[in-house]
Amino acid sequence: MPLSPSARSVVFSAARAGLARPAAMSVSEWAAAHRRIVAQEAAEPGRWRNERTPYLRGVMDAFNDPRVNRISLMKAERVGGSEAILNILGYIIDRAPGPVLYIYPTEDMAFEINRKRVLPTIKKTPALAGHMTGKAWDARMLDVQLDRMSIAFRGSNAEGKLEALGFKYPIVDELDRCAPNTLEVIAGRGAANPGGKQIEIGTPELEWSGDPEDRTQGIDRSFKQGDRRRLYVPCPHCGNYHQRTFSRVKWIGNLDAKPDYVEESAYFVCPCLRPDGSACEGIIHGHHNQQQLAECAWVPEGYGILPGGIVVSPRGEQIRAAGGVYFSTGNSHASFALHGLYTPFKANPYGYLAREFVTNRGHTTREWLNRRMGEPWSTKGQRVEASRMSVLCGYIGTKRISVADAGAAAPGTPAQAK
Fold this sequence. Notes:
Number of strands: 18
Oligomer: single chain
Largest sheet: 10 strands, mixed
Structural class: alpha/beta
Number of helices: 14
Shape: globular
């Protein structure tokens, strides 16, 4: 029976809608529209909100830059980095399908992460659940088969298993705890596929010196091989942008202060200079944190930053970067360093770090530096940076040693990596 003109119109409209390409979206836009954070082991379950962790926009949206084939994130714990990688994975499943190799230090860890986080995220996010086949054997703990792609979860200690797999997107989580040759095994294989990207993330352990003869493998080396982006935030008093360094964290009392009081009273002192050359020295409390993060900006090495979140390239180009947005440097490797002082998941982002520092009697322990601060540990005892020396006098109540801080960039001048 022939269809009436109106019925044909409905059928053709439906067909066109089904064949139409989905609207272009960045990873961060996709996450805001679709991602659901599962309750299990999540600090804040529910719908993903970019405004909660604005700094992750740039990390996620680097994936959409066709010039970028490698992304590295050196981070502290409790800053949301792993959730950002899950957002990238979700985007791949829904918008850019291709085989994924997800590597963790051990196979047991890969098994547990998939069981507790990845599969639950896919099942609870409608845009992803629709890509599951519905077959129980396609959702195994180490291998997940979706309608248009597969995800293989492997431990870095299974080198032969890594070499035998084909993939477009290799993702390495907790790089410093993986086998030393992990990146060598997968080097270039993902990027060799059109549109392929290699992603590395982790809290650092040992510092890489930058010497080609230094065989130290880890996220610090990956970060330094890229364009070295560091996070800057505006002072709520003078408006100038600065990095947060522990040397500018102060509290009432000294190393004998009660840890609970230190955590409550700790604050940050602005390191910036006003236009007239005078020091701002504005007191920045924990309640300013979310306001500052809303205007944060990633600043690559060699770039400067102006008030208003205007990043200035070495060629003098001005880029509006406030809000943690991504912009291209032309480098194929986008690398980011994210310290614990920026976490929005603590009422006082300075206090919990100061508390542990006082509890350790002012000793910069490796655990504190690596996992809480997100900075690598240097094994070169003869080399002490100014920013690390001034950590020893970051409290009130004793005479402060006069050591230059490297945390602030003068407006329009190149930002100095810490």
